[in-house]
Amino acid sequence: MEGLNDVEGTYEADMKLTPLQAVEIMEGSKTLDGTGRSKRKVVSNTIYKWPKGIVMFEFSNINELPENIKRTVLSAMEYWASVTCLQFRKRTAELEKEVGHSDYIVFSKGPGCSSQIGRVGGPQEITISEICNKKVTVAHEIGHSIGFYHEQSRPDRDYYVEIRRTNIQPGYEGDFKKYEAGIDIGLQEPYDIGSAMHYGPTWFSKDDKSYTIEPKDKGFLGVMGQREELTFMDMKTANDFYECNASCPNNLECKNGGYVGPNCVCVCPSGLTGITCDDVKRGTPVCGGILSGASGTFMTPNFPGNYPDNADCFWLVQATQASEITVTFDNFEMEEDETCYYDWLEIRRHSMLLAGPKYCGEGPSGPIVFIGQSLMFHFHTDDGYGFKGFRASYTIRPK
Ligand SMILES: [Zn+2]
Predict the structure, then answer these.
(1) Do domains 1-244 and 282-398 have the same CATH topology?
(2) Binding site for Zn(2+), residues?
(3) Assuming Cys at both sites, which of 8, 146, 283, 351 could form a disulfide with 287, CB separation 3.0 to 4.6 Å?
């Protein structure tokens, strides 16, 4: 987990701000123009970007990272490069000429993990320590350096999470500040509680178990603070910010919220596939599919026998127009766990593009009612402890 050790001079535990950025956060992104009047400035669109999407870097010779962490750093850079148009290249004199500046990231060994936000000018450090030696945790730090703030600092965060101040370890209250509009990238996108840029529910807790950021919907307990992957919205936000599809022909229309990615093909929300994201991934074992009738049923593999290990099934309930989609579970029996860590059913009941709450044990307490055109279900099991699973029925009522 990043941020366990604070680093002197950091604003949030793993985030360092330049004096200008600190002023912007304090003043709600108002900066003074030449006349002394205050004007609003979306700095994120100007000085923070890496020109041409080229991020120059080197490894520190002074606080040298051990080889195993260097490998993690390289894999985290490869990860970002594989899902965006960003390029991470070793700093050379020729490259400085090509990009027209000499700003670069220095990866060094730190007492904790930290990064500055965006490109700040000259060398800027990303520190990594053994406790954050994990690909997506390092990708989180790199995320800061390409322009991301923490997701839970967004001005709209109080609709989704509650900050429990009395549970925060003394001295870390600053990690839970909320920023005003205008300084973050991706604010035009919906709040992504599952983002790799979001903290987990007990981070910086005084006793390591009381909630510091409590999700309003408990189904998100196992989603918040995940460092397994960059989410669809993490990737989309970076792609938008660096205009990764700017030179693609604009004749490809991605469906279901997909976007045109850096290779000029549609990048689909999780569980969807096809050239235009209009199909559902066939699961393991073969399961799932598109449900477009006015009503119907779907169930876990082998139901009412026990579901298999290592299963992944996606069901997309799809209406032809905005509708009220009601889903009722006639039976629900899955491995119980507070955060639904092992076997779960994810219902993307807010948006198809975002992680949804996870259900396990006895499942949702009543019918799920969704207003919209399409509702996605993702059933997942790990190895061991199979249960009966569920059978669900749905109805679509056009609005
Ligand atoms: Zn961070």
Answers:
(1) no
(2) 140, 144, 150
(3) 283
CA of 113 to the centre of ligand 1 (A): 8
Class of domain 282-398: mainly beta
User: What pLDDT, on the 0 to 100 scale, is given for residue 38?
Assistant: 33
Tens digit of each residue's pLDDT (9 = 90 or more) over 291-304: 999 999 999 999 99
Neighbouring-strand partners of residue 295: 395
**Contact present, 208 and 202 (Cβ < 8 Å):** yes
Q: How many CB atoms within 10 Å of residue 247?
A: 9
pLDDT tens column, 21-71: 554 444 333 333 333 333 333 344 444 799 999 999 999 999 999 999 999
- As a whole number, mean pLDDT of residues 68-80 equals 98
Catalytic entry in 141, 333, 335, 346: 141
Measured in Å, residue 125 CA sits from the centre of ligand 1 at 14
Tell me if residue 24 is catalytic.
no
Q: How far is the CA of 150 from the centre of ligand 1 (A)?
A: 6
Q: Residues comprising the binding site?
A: 140, 144, 150
Contacts 24+ apart (CB under 8 A), 271-277: 271/314, 271/316, 271/376, 271/378, 272/314, 272/316, 272/352, 272/376, 276/252
Give the residue extent of every domain in the chain. 1-244, 282-398
Distance 195 CA to ligand 1 centre (A): 11
Taking only the tens place, the pLDDT of each residue in 343-382 is 999 999 888 999 999 999 999 989 999 999 999 999 999 9
May I ask the CATH class of domain 1-244? Answer: alpha beta
Nearest to 234 by CA among 197, 270, 277: 197
